[in-house]
């Protein structure tokens, strides 16, 4: 039997039936990813398997470095095939790492290749995959169609021009593609050189001369409006921890003036300015009915030497160790007091905090929207089988799994869409095991409705992106 087969990860009969009947045919709503809008607009055609599969993939780089592979085969100047062959040599050593599952699931789903990747099979796999990548079926647009991706939400800086999104919106692409508002750069007042460069950039994009805090707020609101006009309905923040220090506008203006003059602010001032801006962003999102996402807990660029050598987002990040609860509760509570708490998805990166996040989410349900504050799916270091199960269990035990809006791709690669299949198989296996153990009724249609909703319907209803629902998943409110 091939390693990737019809019953992959499905360890009981009920799970197999649930997956085949209720999960396998569901479309994808990719509501958080890092796909480049330019590549969608241009319908990128990949020259070879390296470009499609390894370019920019810090998951694979981490595994390669752990196996002693030199940096030139990761981010360096080795040739495309050399880098692919270096990865192929590492794959057999990734047993029990999720990369082993993802690698072979992706080879199977994109290229129909069942061979296990290693140094011996690499030349044949390279040749066969490259032949298929030359076809229209595996361009950026072809991939979105192949995996029935109804909508994609990219991650975009408010200073971006959105020109690529404008091109996509004017095209006949069946998949809806929307920007997501990610204003992290505005919080970096402690880095005055970088921060002032960004301030000038957003000012130019918004056509606002930014001299005072009020000018900055005007430019951000203007960009928020322009994102909305292009279909954006989500914001996102990638933070080590939530900022919730109370800060008056007068104090925030003084901190702005210090940073705008090129002087560094203190850590306390940075925290208070960030708290002021996060409240402003929350109010903007609530006004427009957006969903705010917060990715909390990553310790980025832990290796300073390698950051200097290869830059950011290169695989040198780790799980952070910050207290999360008090600030997150304070932030949500302050917005709630103002009647300005938007729909929200909070993603946790430290597994010790799963129950913390899950119970905080439940504390701000107010009867206005089903699942208003979501405990988000496992992400980054927690998007593998075991951690997906942890997240589902914490959510199930403290809230309503039936209202969960499901998995995100959270990837820069067009070859990551089988991660949705991976999640769905894990979900079906858990529910199937409960049915066979007598923990759930032996009524597969009951569990099946939940599966349809978690796979697609809930996100389609909750996010308001205007994408067409599936035949089975109605996005029941």
Q: What coarse outline follows from CA principal-axis ratios?
A: globular
Low-confidence stretches: 470-477
Rg computed from alpha carbons, rounded to a whole number of angstroms: 23 Å
Percent range for helical residues? Answer: 40-55%
CATH topology-level name of the largest domain: TIM Barrel
Q: Tell me, what is the CATH class of the largest domain?
A: Alpha Beta
CATH superfamily of the largest domain: Metal-dependent hydrolases
Strand order of the largest sheet: 4-5-8-9
List how many beta strands DSSP finds.
9
Second rung of CATH, namely the architecture of the largest domain: Alpha-Beta Barrel
Structural domain count: 2
State the order of secondary-structure elements, H for helix, E for strand. HEHHHHHHHEHEHHEHHEEHEHEHEHHH
Mean pLDDT value: 96
- The portion of residues forming beta strands comes to 5-15%
The structural class is alpha/beta
Number of helical runs? 19
> How does the major sheet shape up?
4 strands, parallel
Spatial gap, N to C terminus: 42 Å
Describe this structure in words.
By secondary structure, this protein is α/β, with parallel strands linked by helices. It folds into two domains: 45-138, uronate isomerase, domain 2, chain A; 149-463, TIM Barrel (Alpha-Beta Barrel). 48% of the residues lie in helices and 8% in strands. The protein has 19 helices and nine strands. It has helices spanning 13-23, 37-41, 49-54, 58-66, 80-90, 98-111, 122-133, 140-146, 163-169, 192-206, 213-229, 249-260, 267-288, 304-310, 325-337, 354-362, 385-398, 418-436, 444-463; strands at residues 28-30, 149-153, 176-178, 234-239, 291-296, 298-299, 318-319, 343-348, 373-375. The strands form three sheets. Strands 4-5-8-9 form a four-stranded parallel sheet, with helices on one face. Strands 1-2-3 form a three-stranded parallel sheet. Helix 17 (385-398) packs across helix 18. Mean pLDDT is 96; it is low at 470-477.
């Amino acid at each position: 039997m091939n390693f990737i087969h019809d019953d992959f990860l499905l360890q009981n009969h009920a799970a197999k039936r649930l997956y085949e009947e209720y999960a396998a045919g569901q479309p994808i709503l990719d509501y958080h990813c890092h796909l480049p809008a330019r590549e969608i607009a241009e319908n990128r055609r990949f020259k070879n398997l390296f470009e499609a599969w390894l370019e920019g993939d810090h998951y694979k780089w981490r595994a390669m470095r752990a196996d002693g592979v030199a940096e030139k085969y990761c981010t360096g100047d080795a040739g495309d095939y050399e880098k692919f062959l270096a990865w192929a040599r590492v794959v057999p050593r990734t047993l029990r790492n999720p990369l082993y599952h993802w690698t072979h699931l992706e080879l199977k789903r994109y290229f129909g290749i069942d061979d296990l990747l290693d140094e011996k099979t690499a030349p044949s796999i390279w040749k066969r995959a490259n032949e298929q990548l030359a076809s229209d079926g595996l361009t950026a647009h072809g991939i979105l169609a192949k995996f029935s991706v109804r909508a994609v939400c990219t991650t975009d800086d408010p200073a971006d021009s959105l020109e690529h999104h404008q091109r996509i919106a004017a095209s006949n692409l069946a998949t809806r593609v929307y920007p997501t508002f990610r204003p992290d750069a505005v919080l970096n007042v402690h880095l005055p050189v970088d921060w002032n460069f960004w301030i000038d950039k957003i000012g130019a994009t918004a056509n606002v001369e930014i001299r005072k805090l009020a000018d900055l707020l005007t430019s951000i609101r203007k960009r928020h409006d322009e994102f909305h006009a292009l279909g954006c309905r989500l914001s996102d923040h990638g933070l080590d921890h939530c900022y919730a220090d109370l800060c008056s506008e007068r104090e925030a203006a003084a901190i702005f003036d210090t940073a705008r003059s090129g002087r560094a602010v203190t850590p306390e001032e940075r925290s208070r300015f960030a708290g002021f801006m996060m409240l402003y962003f929350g109010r903007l999102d609530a006004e427009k009915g957006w969903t705010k996402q917060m990715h909390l807990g990553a310790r980025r660029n832990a290796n300073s030497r390698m950051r200097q050598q290869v830059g950011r987002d290169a695989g040198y990040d780790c799980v952070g160790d910050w207290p999360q609860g008090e600030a997150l509760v304070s932030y949500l509570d302050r917005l709630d007091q103002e009647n300005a708490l938007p729909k929200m998805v909070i993603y946790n990166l430290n597994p010790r905090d799963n129950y913390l996040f899950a119970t905080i989410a439940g504390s701000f349900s107010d009867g206005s929207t089903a699942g208003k504050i979501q405990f988000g799916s496992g992400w980054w270091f927690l998007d593998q089988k075991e951690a997906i199960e942890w997240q589902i269990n914490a959510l199930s035990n403290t809230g309503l799994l039936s209202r969960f809006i499901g998995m995100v791709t959270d990837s820069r690669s067009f070859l990551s869409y089988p991660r949705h299949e991976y999640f769905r198989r894990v979900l079906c296996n858990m529910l199937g095991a409960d049915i066979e153990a007598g923990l759930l009724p032996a009524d597969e249609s009951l569990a099946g409705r939940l599966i349809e909703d978690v796979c697609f319907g809930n996100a389609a209803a909750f996010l308001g992106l205007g994408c067409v629902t599936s035949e089975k998943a109605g996005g029941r409110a």
